[in-house]
């Protein structure tokens, strides 16, 4: 029995992960679960899965939750330190890192420092602190298995050759809800329009990232660190159907791809059972009816976030932490109606250019810069009244 800790169990990744646990309860059990503030949903999950531990990251809820709603016997703890303690708990085999944003870094690191296998959905962990995270994994002999659909696809395709035989990695991008919109039209898109992803059902932050294609930028950086690739070995291709989840081209010209209908339960399950494969619960690819798989080059003018991804992947150092923090705040401001859609990549570029670059930052330096970038992005004046 694999005992897992599901960090962010109330989110899109978390609930998909619990579907996998439910379907394979003979092989996987949830020893612990965490949420930020949706404690009632967490309480319901505790009644269904009877974990030993639950953690509510929002410390301020300590005295206001109704403890009687939780499964009797389940220990309830509060705050980010408690999330990190759960991630490092001796009885946990695999940590599913499904918290959104840089808030997921601390617990991903705690798990790796404790020698755990980390099923990594929280791409921000690598975007913010890639080299430090990989060094922690190396030092503690811990395994980092990608959950992000593209990186899971690359991870699977890489098993067809040797690292030195890789010519390039091709990340697919759905293109988001605005794939075919003109630049003029993009000026007027609303949060509701941006939250309507054509192929994936995900949390709000990544859904907006997908619409700006900042998600792909973050994924370029994630791939750069995870697979130790130079930025010029990473390409992006727009694939609106989200069936080919990414590809690896080897030096002989062979391209290996991983295909499946868009459903995160597959890469989550694979990360939990790797190196084994077991019966899946996500829909199968139906090849009995005709369908098209399309591929287009990305449009860097309409989606300038993409260029930021390549630049940051190339420069490394403090750039990932700054880009990520600026983007988190910019997305929140866009959702609040306080920034236009096109101002998201604009403010990110400006904050990135204004920061004091360091090539080999410590975790403390990254934390300080993260705070600085958030403050600057909050203060940044929107040019349009929205
Ligand atoms: N959704 C998807 O299909 C995919 C997601 N990812 C990545 O996975 C991660 C999670 O995404 P997703 O599931 O969509 O996000 P959601 O917004 O759906 O869920 C986020 C989860 O994190 C918790 N959380 C939020 N803020 C904090 C915090 N400060 N401290 C601790 N916990 C917190 C939330 O708790 P609460 O509910 O209480 O707010 C919730 O459980 C992201 O990094 C995303 O990029 C990658 C590939 C696909
Ligand atoms: C499911 C997943 O992995 C997301 O990161 C997804 O890829 C987002 O879609 P985009 O390709 O539109 O960014
Ligand atoms: Mn992805």
TrEMBL record:
One of its GO terms (biological process) is isopentenyl diphosphate biosynthetic process, methylerythritol 4-phosphate pathway involved in terpenoid biosynthetic process. Pathway: Isoprenoid biosynthesis; isopentenyl diphosphate biosynthesis via DXP pathway; isopentenyl diphosphate from 1-deoxy-D-xylulose 5-phosphate: step 1/6. It comes from the Bacteria. The keyword Phosphoprotein does not apply. Its cofactor is Mg(2+); Mn(2+). It is an enzyme of class 1 (oxidoreductase). It holds the Pfam family DXP_reductoisom. This is 1-deoxy-D-xylulose 5-phosphate reductoisomerase. It comes from Maioricimonas rarisocia.
């Amino acid at each position: 029995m694999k005992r897992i800790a599901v960090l962010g169990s109330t989110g899109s990744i978390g609930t998909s992960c619990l579907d996998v646990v439910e379907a394979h309860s003979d092989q996987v059990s949830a020893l612990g679960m965490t949420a930020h503030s949706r404690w009632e949903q967490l309480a319901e999950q505790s009644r269904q899965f009877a974990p030993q531990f639950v953690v509510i990251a929002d410390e301020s809820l300590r005295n206001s939750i109704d403890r009687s709603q939780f499964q009797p016997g389940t220990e309830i703890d509060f705050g980010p330190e408690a999330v990190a303690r759960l991630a490092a708990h001796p009885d946990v085999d695999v940590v599913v890192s499904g918290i959104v944003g840089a808030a997921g870094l601390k617990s991903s690191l705690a798990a790796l420092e404790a020698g755990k296998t980390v099923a990594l959905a929280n791409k921000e962990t690598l975007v913010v602190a890639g080299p430090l995270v990989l060094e922690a994994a190396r030092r503690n002999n811990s395994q980092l298995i990608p959950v992000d659909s593209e990186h899971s696809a690359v991870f699977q395709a890489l098993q067809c050759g040797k690292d030195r035989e890789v010519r390039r990695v091709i990340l697919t991008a759905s293109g988001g809800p605005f794939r075919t919109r003109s630049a003029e039209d993009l000026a007027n898109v609303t949060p509701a329009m941006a939250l309507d992803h054509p192929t994936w059902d995900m949390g709000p932050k990544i859904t907006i990232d997908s619409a700006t294609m900042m998600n792909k930028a973050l994924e370029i950086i994630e791939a750069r660190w995870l697979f130790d690739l130079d930025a010029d070995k990473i390409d992006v291709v727009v694939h609106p159907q989200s069936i080919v989840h990414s590809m690896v081209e080897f030096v002989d010209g062979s391209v290996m791809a991983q295909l499946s209908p868009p459903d995160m339960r597959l890469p989550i399950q694979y990360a939990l059972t790797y190196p084994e494969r077991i019966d899946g619960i996500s829909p199968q690819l139906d090849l009995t009816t005709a369908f098209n798989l399309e591929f287009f080059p990305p449009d860097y003018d309409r989606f300038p976030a993409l260029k930021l991804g390549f630049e940051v992947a190339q420069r490394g150092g403090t750039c990932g932490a700054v880009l990520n923090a600026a983007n988190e705040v910019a997305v929140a401001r866009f959702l609040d109606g306080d920034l236009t859609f096109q101002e998201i990549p604009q403010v990110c570029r400006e904050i990135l250019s204004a920061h004091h670059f360091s090539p080999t930052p410590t975790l403390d330096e990254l934390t300080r810069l993260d705070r600085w970038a958030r403050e600057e992005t909050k203060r940044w004046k929107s040019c349009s009244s929205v």
